[in-house]
Write a structure and sequence with these properties.
337 residues; 10 helices; binds nicotinamide-adenine-dinucleotide; alpha/beta; eight-stranded parallel beta sheet; disordered C terminus; Rossmann fold
């Protein structure tokens, strides 16, 4: 069984060879990343404050001797000899990152700073999970990495968008000033198994609502677009970037260029679940981006990466996951808010 650190015994002087720290490893994406690192024989330390992460996402990993986790908030400094760091720690869903916006900003800025200092100290390679939100409500479509974005610094999404932008700047500066070996992925909306049923993002909301026969809550008129990437494709992109033979120290978009309106997504999920739910319209949240689609030519050219899983296929696997979450051992349906 993997080791469980706590904050008091967390400092460790064990040999660092091949040790990978995954901050946010108990979350949706982080747990899938831990899976593949462990399968490859790496030693993985998951660092998570369990704000949106869940033990059930990593419980199956405790059988690995090479896996351990610690409950720790990255806004507090950390000292652990490691060779690689993945920073995925940050709530990704708007309702969750807006619940405590100051903490979200601290996670992105102070948390990234702490991990960059750790990387500089141990000469570890460090990966940052950045976001398409750095493009804000984009005026350029699709979005290439060279687009500087259209971001509001003074609104409900700013703690996340500006926090992630600031984190990218810190990565740039640690690379320039201290020679830290950085990798930055700009992730476009990604979905799949292990999202929380109460995550609040659109794919999990619509599937949960459809499976429970509740109204499907489309915000605005549903004409805004997103490009949805299945989690397995994304993690493959992470891996290719982190271990690319040619080091790429600039941000790289990873996402699926297939672009859908939110209304199309709702209709697709209702059809695939055979649900009796009806689509209802709620006000559009402040600063909700009108459109989003990655230009992935850099990833295609430099990493030979492109997504392989179509929306319908990815939704099938995700719907099956949420069905399993809802059905208790007795076979009855569990109610999830
Ligand atoms: P998630 O909310 O499931 O996972 C985030 C994890 O980070 C959780 O386990 C949470 O408990 C942990 N965490 C949050 N704040 C922390 C802190 N201060 N200290 C330690 N742990 C902390 O979200 P996700 O979808 O898995 O996203 C992972 C990363 O990828 C995030 O950084 C997010 O911004 C980025 N991202 C995700 C998407 C997406 O579509 N999934 C898109 C763009 C960017
Ligand atoms: N959305 C929606 N209904 C929901 C949740 C989200 O219509 O129940 C919309 C939201 O307004 C946005 C899109 O779906 O236009 C994607 O939202 P999400 O929170 O998943 O991600 P983000 O806005 O960060 O891309």
């Amino acid at each position: 069984m993997g080791i469980v650190f706590n904050s008091s015994n967390f400092h460790s002087d064990r040999a660092s060879k091949g040790r990978v720290l995954v901050a946010g490893g108990a979350g949706f994406l982080g747990s899938h990343l831990c899976d593949i690192l462990l399968r490859e024989g790496r030693t993985v330390i998951c660092v998570d404050n369990f704000f949106t992460g869940r033990l059930e996402n990593i419980r199956h990993l405790l059988r690995y001797e090479t896996f351990s986790y610690v409950r720790h908030d990255i806004i507090e400094s950390i000292d652990l000899p490691v060779d690689e760091i993945y920073n995925l720690a940050c709530p990704a869903s708007p309702p969750h990152y807006q619940a405590n916006p100051i903490h979200t900003m601290k996670t992105n800025v102070i948390g990234s700073l702490n991990l960059l200092q750790l990387a500089a100290h141990y000469q570890a390679r460090i990966f940052q999970a950045s976001t398409s939100e750095v493009y804000g409500d984009p005026n350029v479509h699709p979005q290439p990495e060279g687009y500087w974005g259209n971001v509001n610094s003074f609104g409900p999404r700013s703690c996340y968008d500006e926090g992630k932008r600031c984190a990218e700047t810190l990565f740039y500066d640690f690379h320039k000033q201290h020679g830290v070996d950085i990798r930055i992925v700009r992730i476009f909306n990604t979905y799949g198994p292990r999202m929380r049923p109460d995550d609040g993002r659109v794919v999990s909301n619509f599937i949960m609502q459809a499976l429970q026969g509740k109204d499907i809550t489309v915000y605005g008129d549903g004409s805004q677009t997103r490009s949805f990437c299945y989690v397995d494709d994304l993690i493959e992109g992470f891996h290719r970037l982190m271990y690319s033979p040619r080091a790429i120290h600039t941000p790289v978009n990873i996402g699926n260029p297939g672009e859908f309106t939110v209304r199309e997504l709702a209709e697709q999920i209702v059809a695939m679940t055979g649900s009796s739910s009806k689509i209802v319209y709620h006000p559009l949240p402040v600063d909700d981006p009108r459109q989003r689609r990655p230009d992935i030519s850099l990833a295609e050219r430099e990493l030979g990466w492109k997504p392989t899983i179509a929306l319908k296929e990815g939704l099938q696997a995700t719907i099956a996951y949420f069905e399993r979450q809802l059905v208790r051992p007795s076979g009855e349906l569990a109610e999830v808010a």
